[in-house]
Amino acid sequence: MTDLTGRIALVTGGSRGLGFEIAQAYAIHGATVVIASRKLEACEAAATQLSNETGSTVLGLACHVGKWDECTRLVDTVYDKFGRLDILVNNAGMSPTYPSLPEVSEELFDKVIDVNIKGPFRLASLVGSRMAKNDGGSIINISSIAAVQPSEREVPYGIAKAGINNLSSALAHAFAPKVRVNTIMPGLFLTDISKAWDLEKVTERARSTIPAQRAGEPCEITGAALYLARDESSYTTGSVLKVDGGIARQFG
User: Fold this and answer.
1) For the chain, which terminal residue's Cβ has fewer other Cβ atoms within 10 angstroms, N or C?
2) Quick one: DSSP state of residue 220?
3) Can you tell me whether residue 134 is helix, strand or coil?
4) Is 79 one of the annotated active-site residues of the chain?
5) 111-135: average pLDDT
6) Which position has the higher pLDDT, 96 or 41?
Protein backbone atom coordinates (compact mmCIF):
# COMPACT_ATOMS: atom_id res chain seq x y z
CA MET A 1 0.00 0.00 0.00
CA THR A 2 2.87 2.40 0.64
CA ASP A 3 5.21 1.41 -2.19
CA LEU A 4 6.59 4.53 -3.91
CA THR A 5 8.95 2.81 -6.33
CA GLY A 6 9.42 4.91 -9.44
CA ARG A 7 8.16 8.12 -7.82
CA ILE A 8 10.29 11.27 -7.63
CA ALA A 9 9.85 13.30 -4.43
CA LEU A 10 11.20 16.72 -3.44
CA VAL A 11 11.25 17.58 0.27
CA THR A 12 12.28 21.08 1.30
CA GLY A 13 13.82 21.51 4.72
CA GLY A 14 14.65 17.83 4.37
CA SER A 15 18.06 17.72 6.01
CA ARG A 16 16.69 17.55 9.56
CA GLY A 17 13.59 17.42 11.74
CA LEU A 18 10.22 16.51 10.26
CA GLY A 19 11.51 16.99 6.73
CA PHE A 20 14.25 14.41 7.24
CA GLU A 21 11.74 11.93 8.67
CA ILE A 22 9.47 12.38 5.65
CA ALA A 23 12.38 12.05 3.22
CA GLN A 24 13.52 8.91 5.02
CA ALA A 25 10.05 7.35 4.88
CA TYR A 26 9.79 8.03 1.15
CA ALA A 27 13.24 6.56 0.52
CA ILE A 28 12.44 3.46 2.60
CA HIS A 29 9.36 2.91 0.47
CA GLY A 30 11.28 3.12 -2.79
CA ALA A 31 11.02 6.72 -3.95
CA THR A 32 13.85 8.70 -5.45
CA VAL A 33 14.16 11.65 -3.08
CA VAL A 34 15.58 15.14 -3.47
CA ILE A 35 16.41 16.89 -0.20
CA ALA A 36 16.65 20.67 -0.37
CA SER A 37 17.60 23.28 2.22
CA ARG A 38 19.85 26.33 2.50
CA LYS A 39 23.05 24.48 3.43
CA LEU A 40 24.39 22.20 0.72
CA GLU A 41 26.67 20.27 3.07
CA ALA A 42 23.78 19.37 5.36
CA CYS A 43 21.67 18.25 2.39
CA GLU A 44 24.45 16.13 0.96
CA ALA A 45 25.17 14.53 4.33
CA ALA A 46 21.51 13.69 4.86
CA ALA A 47 21.24 12.37 1.30
CA THR A 48 24.28 10.14 1.74
CA GLN A 49 22.93 8.80 5.02
CA LEU A 50 19.52 7.97 3.59
CA SER A 51 20.96 6.48 0.42
CA ASN A 52 23.23 4.19 2.44
CA GLU A 53 20.41 3.21 4.80
CA THR A 54 17.70 2.58 2.23
CA GLY A 55 19.40 1.81 -1.07
CA SER A 56 17.25 4.43 -2.78
CA THR A 57 18.58 7.29 -4.85
CA VAL A 58 18.71 10.41 -2.66
CA LEU A 59 20.07 13.75 -3.88
CA GLY A 60 20.89 16.83 -1.84
CA LEU A 61 20.48 20.29 -3.37
CA ALA A 62 20.91 23.75 -1.90
CA CYS A 63 17.96 26.13 -2.05
CA HIS A 64 16.87 29.10 0.01
CA VAL A 65 13.12 28.79 -0.55
CA GLY A 66 12.61 32.40 0.48
CA LYS A 67 14.34 33.49 -2.72
CA TRP A 68 12.22 33.40 -5.88
CA ASP A 69 15.06 32.67 -8.30
CA GLU A 70 16.43 29.83 -6.18
CA CYS A 71 13.01 28.15 -6.15
CA THR A 72 12.90 28.38 -9.94
CA ARG A 73 16.41 26.96 -10.22
CA LEU A 74 15.59 24.08 -7.86
CA VAL A 75 12.55 23.01 -9.86
CA ASP A 76 14.44 23.28 -13.16
CA THR A 77 17.29 21.19 -11.74
CA VAL A 78 14.98 18.41 -10.56
CA TYR A 79 13.15 18.25 -13.88
CA ASP A 80 16.38 18.40 -15.88
CA LYS A 81 17.81 15.49 -13.90
CA PHE A 82 14.77 13.26 -13.48
CA GLY A 83 12.33 14.48 -16.12
CA ARG A 84 9.41 14.58 -13.69
CA LEU A 85 8.32 15.22 -10.13
CA ASP A 86 5.52 13.23 -8.51
CA ILE A 87 5.58 14.48 -4.91
CA LEU A 88 6.42 17.93 -3.54
CA VAL A 89 6.61 18.45 0.21
CA ASN A 90 6.84 22.11 1.21
CA ASN A 91 8.31 21.61 4.67
CA ALA A 92 10.98 24.31 5.02
CA GLY A 93 10.06 26.83 7.70
CA MET A 94 11.34 29.14 10.40
CA SER A 95 9.96 30.84 13.51
CA PRO A 96 12.60 33.08 15.10
CA THR A 97 11.99 34.45 18.58
CA TYR A 98 11.44 38.13 19.38
CA PRO A 99 11.21 40.14 22.63
CA SER A 100 7.76 41.60 22.01
CA LEU A 101 5.39 42.32 19.14
CA PRO A 102 6.42 46.00 18.75
CA GLU A 103 10.02 44.82 18.55
CA VAL A 104 9.41 42.52 15.59
CA SER A 105 11.70 44.00 12.96
CA GLU A 106 10.75 44.36 9.33
CA GLU A 107 13.67 42.09 8.46
CA LEU A 108 12.43 39.31 10.79
CA PHE A 109 8.86 39.63 9.54
CA ASP A 110 9.92 39.48 5.90
CA LYS A 111 12.16 36.44 6.49
CA VAL A 112 9.34 34.53 8.16
CA ILE A 113 6.91 35.35 5.36
CA ASP A 114 9.46 34.58 2.64
CA VAL A 115 10.43 31.14 3.93
CA ASN A 116 7.06 30.00 5.24
CA ILE A 117 4.67 31.14 2.53
CA LYS A 118 6.36 32.88 -0.40
CA GLY A 119 8.63 29.91 -1.09
CA PRO A 120 5.89 27.26 -0.87
CA PHE A 121 3.68 29.38 -3.15
CA ARG A 122 6.42 29.67 -5.74
CA LEU A 123 7.43 26.00 -5.63
CA ALA A 124 3.86 24.72 -5.65
CA SER A 125 2.96 27.05 -8.53
CA LEU A 126 5.89 25.90 -10.64
CA VAL A 127 5.57 22.21 -9.83
CA GLY A 128 1.77 22.07 -9.83
CA SER A 129 1.52 23.61 -13.29
CA ARG A 130 3.95 21.02 -14.68
CA MET A 131 2.20 18.16 -12.88
CA ALA A 132 -1.15 19.32 -14.27
CA LYS A 133 0.17 19.26 -17.83
CA ASN A 134 1.59 15.75 -17.43
CA ASP A 135 0.67 12.79 -15.24
CA GLY A 136 -0.41 14.68 -12.14
CA GLY A 137 1.02 14.34 -8.64
CA SER A 138 0.71 15.23 -4.99
CA ILE A 139 1.71 18.48 -3.27
CA ILE A 140 1.89 18.36 0.52
CA ASN A 141 2.26 21.60 2.43
CA ILE A 142 3.43 21.47 6.05
CA SER A 143 1.54 23.96 8.17
CA SER A 144 1.34 24.25 11.97
CA ILE A 145 -1.31 24.49 14.67
CA ALA A 146 -0.06 28.09 14.93
CA ALA A 147 -2.19 28.65 11.82
CA VAL A 148 -5.33 28.34 13.96
CA GLN A 149 -4.03 28.75 17.53
CA PRO A 150 -1.10 31.18 17.40
CA SER A 151 0.52 32.36 20.59
CA GLU A 152 1.94 35.85 21.09
CA ARG A 153 5.39 34.32 20.56
CA GLU A 154 4.72 33.28 16.98
CA VAL A 155 2.44 35.82 15.35
CA PRO A 156 4.30 36.29 12.02
CA TYR A 157 4.77 32.51 11.83
CA GLY A 158 1.08 31.91 12.50
CA ILE A 159 0.12 34.39 9.79
CA ALA A 160 2.33 32.57 7.30
CA LYS A 161 1.07 29.12 8.26
CA ALA A 162 -2.54 30.26 8.00
CA GLY A 163 -1.57 31.26 4.48
CA ILE A 164 -0.33 27.72 3.87
CA ASN A 165 -3.76 26.31 4.74
CA ASN A 166 -5.35 28.79 2.35
CA LEU A 167 -2.76 28.01 -0.34
CA SER A 168 -3.55 24.30 -0.31
CA SER A 169 -7.25 24.95 -0.69
CA ALA A 170 -6.72 27.38 -3.57
CA LEU A 171 -4.24 25.21 -5.47
CA ALA A 172 -6.33 22.08 -5.03
CA HIS A 173 -8.88 23.86 -7.24
CA ALA A 174 -6.39 25.54 -9.53
CA PHE A 175 -4.57 22.33 -10.48
CA ALA A 176 -7.51 19.91 -10.37
CA PRO A 177 -8.18 17.22 -11.35
CA LYS A 178 -4.70 15.79 -11.88
CA VAL A 179 -2.91 17.37 -8.92
CA ARG A 180 -3.86 16.84 -5.30
CA VAL A 181 -2.83 19.55 -2.82
CA ASN A 182 -3.14 18.94 0.91
CA THR A 183 -1.88 20.27 4.22
CA ILE A 184 -0.41 18.45 7.20
CA MET A 185 -0.82 20.57 10.34
CA PRO A 186 1.64 19.34 12.99
CA GLY A 187 1.54 20.17 16.66
CA LEU A 188 4.40 19.99 19.14
CA PHE A 189 7.15 17.66 17.92
CA LEU A 190 10.46 16.66 19.48
CA THR A 191 12.73 17.46 16.55
CA ASP A 192 16.28 18.78 16.78
CA ILE A 193 14.78 22.18 17.64
CA SER A 194 13.66 20.71 20.95
CA LYS A 195 17.27 20.34 22.07
CA ALA A 196 17.10 23.99 23.16
CA TRP A 197 13.91 23.47 25.17
CA ASP A 198 13.45 22.81 28.85
CA LEU A 199 12.05 19.33 28.24
CA GLU A 200 10.86 18.92 31.82
CA LYS A 201 8.64 21.99 31.48
CA VAL A 202 7.52 20.95 27.98
CA THR A 203 6.54 17.50 29.26
CA GLU A 204 4.65 19.00 32.18
CA ARG A 205 2.78 21.42 29.92
CA ALA A 206 1.99 18.69 27.42
CA ARG A 207 0.34 16.56 30.10
CA SER A 208 -2.08 19.35 30.94
CA THR A 209 -2.76 20.87 27.50
CA ILE A 210 -2.45 18.08 24.91
CA PRO A 211 -5.07 15.32 24.93
CA ALA A 212 -2.35 12.79 24.01
CA GLN A 213 -0.43 14.16 27.05
CA ARG A 214 2.89 14.26 25.24
CA ALA A 215 4.78 15.81 22.35
CA GLY A 216 5.06 13.94 19.08
CA GLU A 217 8.09 12.01 17.89
CA PRO A 218 9.37 12.95 14.42
CA CYS A 219 8.60 9.48 13.06
CA GLU A 220 4.92 10.03 13.87
CA ILE A 221 4.52 12.47 10.99
CA THR A 222 5.43 9.92 8.34
CA GLY A 223 2.14 8.02 8.24
CA ALA A 224 0.32 11.14 7.11
CA ALA A 225 3.04 12.03 4.60
CA LEU A 226 2.98 8.54 3.11
CA TYR A 227 -0.81 8.50 2.87
CA LEU A 228 -0.97 11.82 1.04
CA ALA A 229 1.83 10.79 -1.33
CA ARG A 230 0.15 7.55 -2.39
CA ASP A 231 -2.65 6.82 -4.83
CA GLU A 232 -4.75 5.51 -1.93
CA SER A 233 -5.38 9.18 -1.10
CA SER A 234 -6.54 9.94 -4.65
CA TYR A 235 -9.89 11.33 -3.41
CA THR A 236 -8.25 13.55 -0.80
CA THR A 237 -7.43 17.07 -1.89
CA GLY A 238 -7.74 20.53 -0.37
CA SER A 239 -7.72 18.95 3.09
CA VAL A 240 -6.02 19.86 6.36
CA LEU A 241 -4.83 16.85 8.34
CA LYS A 242 -4.00 17.56 11.96
CA VAL A 243 -1.16 15.55 13.50
CA ASP A 244 -1.05 17.27 16.84
CA GLY A 245 -2.07 14.92 19.64
CA GLY A 246 -5.47 16.63 19.64
CA ILE A 247 -4.39 20.07 20.86
CA ALA A 248 -5.90 22.22 18.08
CA ARG A 249 -9.64 22.55 18.61
CA GLN A 250 -10.41 24.04 15.22
CA PHE A 251 -9.26 23.90 11.60
CA GLY A 252 -9.43 27.63 11.01
Assistant:
1) N
2) G
3) coil
4) no
5) 97
6) 41
